[in-house]
Each structure stands twice: as structure tokens, then as C-alpha cells.
Amino acid sequence: MIYELAIHHAAPGALHRAQRLLAGVLSRAAPHHLGLWAGQGGAWPDRVLALFRWPDFQTRDAFQNSVLGDAAYRNEFGFALRSSEHWILQPTGDVATDPASWRSRELFEVRIQEVLNGSQPDAAEAFRDVAAPEIRRLGGRVAAQFDVALGPRRPVFVSFLAWPDMPALQRGQQDMDRSERVAAQRADEIERFGRPLYDRPVQFLATSVFPESP
Amino acid sequence: MIRPYYELRLYQMQPTRMPRFHELMRDHVPALFAKNGVSKPLGGWESHAGPFAPLYGYLLPWESIDARMSAWARFYADPVWQEKLAENYAGAQRVERANVHILRPSAVWERYREEGPTRSVGSVQEMWFHARTGPVGRSEDGGAAARLDAARAHGAEVLGVFDAWIGLPTDRQIAFLAWKDEDHRRSFIECESPDTSGSAVQTQVLLPLPYAKPLSGFA
């Protein structure tokens, strides 16, 4: 399976218009389309993110070509969007397979983090064994973590976390910042690698544009 | 021959770790690429002038992205590659960041293509990243074309023009040029008219690798 993250940069003041445009287009990508999220804050409040799972690139490119060949889309793109960017992802572990996992009413926290080159297996292991259990203990949910296979500034990991709401996210990350397990892991990384494995994240806070019924 | 897809690999190198990386790429990688089905590079460069410096970069042609994914998976799993890499790196990384982009040939490229036998090109080379304003996919409009025309008028040769497909914003056009010498490049820079198309450009000045020199039209 091929996972694709599309990052759409909305034109100034056009986030809702961009959502409408992309929701219309992406409904044509079923069943390969997993989720669509609109920015709520963080580093990219003016972005709309889409996640796909494709059987192969032929199918992916056929869809992409059909979108770009759509005159109405191209015309509206000029008003709603500044640019689009597509990355190909590889899961570092389990990926939530239930579509409701990606279209829930939770608040999604997407963390895009550069990783120390050559240490991707160690970074994935640290996430799986330390960060992910702590996130779950603190009320969050890990939908997936991916390694960017095609894209800029690799190695880069993209983590999809879901929290019940903003207060839960704030409390959860506040407690993560005070977690002894997380602090010990970080100290171990500095001792072994001379620096932490993960750089500061680009943090994207978003809600699903296609929420499932509660 | 223009291919459906191209892969542009731009490695931002760890400072001081470039020299022995060439030994790996020149002496061992070509045979491993051939063995595992990775395309032969159409050009390779080192650069110390531009946003990616210090840069090691190369361009590969592909018939399909699925074929590309399979070939790289075989390559990375090859025990000979793993042995040569470990031997060359000697416990320390050489590459800090790897930018891996899939490109498609731009419609604009056609206007710069020449018939006739392939030949060597000038050794002062350049890579341009153009960011357009306006709708995606309008490769024939704006973007690099006006600036490329001006560069040609100053003696530049256009090696190839591409549209970003995966890994870069899709409003980007990427162009490669070869100049006869640095004087011609400078004369273009000093005479260039202000760009009124609304596009922004970043440039990386390239040093072609002796073992991966691009030919005219990326033949």
C-alpha cells in the first residue's frame, strides 16, 4: 500500500473555500481517500491536509491527472489555493485501518519532525515504546506514524495523534513535557547520539472536514 | 528522449563529508544501480552556491513510479550496498538531509529541445526553482519560460524543464541550464529585465561531476 499526504496551502482568507473545493474533489477518490483536515491553529492554520492509501502509483496518478485536467478545479484553485504539495509516506508501525479513526470529531495533532539521519529505526522504536504509550495514558490516540519516502528534507516523520478536544491536548502535552519516561528517553538519546533523535515539530492542529456521525 | 517521470535527488551534505562520498557514488553505485534496476543518472552535480549547499545532486529518468519504488527497494536491500555504505560512512553520516522529488517533463521543455546528435555542454550549470502564482498545472504559462528565453539570448543552453509532481509544491517548475562560462552567466544576471510575471526564483549554481556529466537535452 502507498500512503500519500497532500498539503494544500489556502489562499489568504480562503480556508473554507479551499475545504469546499478539496472535499468535492476528494469524494471522487473513494475508497482510497482516508481523511481531510482543515487547520485550526499551530504552524499551519491556513493548510488543508488530505491522506490517501493507494494500491499503486498508476491509480494515484490517474486520479491526480483527472483532477488537474478538470477545468472547474483549475479555475477555482486560483482563488482558493496558493499551492499543493504531495509526499509519499511509509508507515513506521501499525496504521489505524477503520475509516472512522481518520474522520472522527477529535482534534487531530499532526507532528512533522525531522529525524537524525541514519537513526530512523531508533526514532521509530522510541516513539513506539515510549511516546505512544504515554500519549495513550494521557488520553490521546495514535492513528499512525509515517516516514516520508518521497519529499523534502528527509528523514522526516509524520505522526497523526488524536485528542478528545483542545483542553485534553493541552493537558496531555503538558504532562508529556513532565513525563519521567519521556525525559529519560531524551537523555538516553543525547548520550547515545549526541542529540535528540527528533527535531522540533511543525505542529498542525486540525479537525476532520468529513466527521463521522457521533 | 523525454521520459514520463524524473527523480531529482538533492542531498544536503554534512560539511567536510563530501570528498569520500564521491568514491562511493563513482566506484560502487553505478554497478549496484544497474544490478537492481535503478536508472542511470542523466547528470550529477556538486554545489556550494545556493540554498542546498553543500549539495550532492543527481537526476534519474523513470518510465513509471511503481518501477522506481521496486528498484529502490531492491537497491536498499542489497547486502553489497549495505556493506559498501557502512565501509564508506565509517560510522558517521555523510548526508544530513535528502530531498527526493518526482518531476514530470514540462510542456515548456519542448520549445528548447534541439534535433541532432547529443553533445557535451558548458560546464557552468545552474538549477532554477520557479514558484508561479496562479492555478496549478499551467506549465505553458508564466513560470520559467520568460526567464529561460532571456537566458538563452545570453548564450545559455536549456538542458531540461520540469514540473513538480511529488515532494515539491506543484506550482514549482525546475529548469537546468548550461552556460559557456561564468562571464555569460554574469552578463545575464546583470542585464536581466525585472520579472513581471509574479513568479519567484531560487537558483543553485552547479558543478557537473566528472563521472556524471549531463549531455545536451539530458540525452
Q: How many individual β-strands of chain B? A: 8
How many strand elements of chain A? 8
Distance between the termini of chain B: 6 Å
Element-by-element helix/strand order of chain B? EHEEHHEEHEEHE
Give the integer mean of the pLDDT values of chain A.
94
Radius of gyration of chain B: 18 Å
The unreliable regions of chain A are none
Structural class label of chain B: alpha+beta
Helix percent band of chain B: 25-40%
What does this structure look like?
The complex is a heterodimer of chains A (214) and B (219). Chain A has helices spanning 15-26, 57-68, 71-80, 99-102, 120-137, 166-177, 180-193, and strands spanning 2-10, 33-42, 47-54, 81-91, 107-114, 141-154, 156-163, 202-208. Chain A is of the alpha+beta class. An eight-stranded antiparallel beta barrel of chain A has the order 1-3-2-8-5-7-6-4, surrounded by five helices. In chain A, β6 (141-154) and β7 form a beta hairpin. With 219 residues, chain B is α+β, with helices and mostly antiparallel strands. In chain B, α1 (19-36) runs antiparallel to α3. The longest helix of chain B has 18 residues, at 19-36. The model of chain B is unreliable at 135-140 (pLDDT under 50). The interface between A and B is medium-sized, with 30 and 28 residues. β6 of chain A pairs antiparallel with β4 of chain B, so a sheet runs across the interface.
SSE topology sketch:
The complex is a heterodimer of chains A (214) and B (219).
Chain A: E1 2-10, H1 15-26, E2 33-42, E3 47-54, H2 57-68, H3 71-80, E4 81-91, H4 99-102, E5 107-114, H5 120-137, E6 141-154, E7 156-163, H6 166-177, H7 180-193, E8 202-208
Antiparallel strand pairs in A: 1-3, 1-4, 2-3, 2-8, 4-6, 5-7, 5-8, 6-7
Chain B: E1 5-13, H1 19-36, E2 43-49, E3 55-62, H2 65-77, H3 79-89, E4 95-105, E5 124-131, H4 145-153, E6 157-166, E7 172-179, H5 182-191, E8 200-208
Antiparallel strand pairs in B: 1-3, 1-4, 2-3, 2-8, 4-6, 5-7, 5-8, 6-7
